[in-house]
Design a protein that fits this description.
Phosphorylase Kinase, domain 1, six-stranded antiparallel β-sheet, three-stranded antiparallel β-sheet, binds adenosine-5'-diphosphate, binds 2-acetamido-2-deoxy-1-O-phosphono-alpha-D-glucopyranose, binds magnesium ion
Amino acid sequence: MGREKSELVRIAERFDIEKKLEDVVPHGNGHINDTYLVTCQAEAGNTVRYILQRMNHEVFKDPKGLMENVTGVTAFLQKKIRENGGDAQREALNVIPLREGGSYWKEDDGTFWRVYRFVEDADSFDVVKRPEDFYESAVAFGHFQKLLEDYPAESLHETIPNFHNTIDRLHNFKKAVEADSAGRAAQVKEEIQFVLDREKDCYVLCDMLASGEIPLRVTHNDTKLNNIMLDKKTGKGICVIDLDTVMPGSALYDYGDSIRFGANTGEEDEKDLSKISCDLELFALYTKGFIEGCGGSLTEKEIRMLPMGAKLMTLECGMRFLTDYLEGDHYFKIHRPEHNLDRCRTQFAMVKDMEDKWAQMQEIVEHYL
Ligand code: ADP
Ligand code: GN1
Ligand code: MG
């Protein structure tokens, strides 16, 4: 992250936070933004914490539009939470405005910054430690989508165009193979072939959305387990975070991306591929929780397609990691030279395992039809 603490303090103090700032430290394991935890002392003597984030404007080319989405969606969620008797300061993200007004700060160096209230007494996990946590995350992600059912979708900016357009991702992948700008293609022939063998799959969800067979909804689009805060006391999914990609999409994206990350028996960047598989118990638990959380809003076709959602989101993510590796690692943060390649390999191993378990996955889902 490489920023001086004094610089971070100066940026944080532009926002309407408690006056006595005590510390700013790097926080979390996101692949996109730079995240910091800000600790302040309130006048009453209690500690108040915030999240300071540098938005990645290479990834999100329109930070203004992005923040319009975030302020719109969080205000909408807060209103619904209040109407249902909930705590809107905790159950939705709260954007802390600038002292001078506005939801984000642009530094002279062209970087973009924002501050959220820190969701206290809650954890976000990088791996499933207890199956019930995964179940609760499913209920919360399903419910999140249900809450946004009547959000005015036309008002949302497309923060990353074609984000889960798997056909477009496939085209970009092929371009990256062709260009081979980092000179790495020869070294990953097997991985390239893995995608080419599954080209047809890449069309399935896009075609169904285009024909209207499955509906376009307002979705989160980045539903990995560390994008939800689980209440330390109750274990419930208290707050969905990382709202940068809330856009029109398919319920199958949200469901699928959670399975991709959380139902994997290994970590996203595990080097030992014998540790990677799709845990069918976790798959079944998440399926149950997500369908419940969606509160009856999923169509029969969507439920039938859940296994395909899981497989395609995993294939797509692996293809994105491989594309980034081929292009010289400019998109996802990496912490070692072959990090993106390792990530790609876990995703493809997960896809392969899902293919082997396809009949069982379908059987689990059919239970809900
Ligand atoms: P990225 O887009 O880089 O993934 P996130 O918004 O997901 O960034 O933030 C990274 C991590 O910081 C999250 O996984 C979570 O652990 C933590 N985090 C982010 N926002 C909050 C918040 N409001 N309260 C508590 N923790 C948060
Ligand atoms: C990124 O931002 P983060 O770390 O929650 C990425 C997702 C990928 C994920 C893979 C905006 O999520 O699409 O599925 O990494 N987010 C963006 O771990 O590209
Ligand atoms: Mg995140």
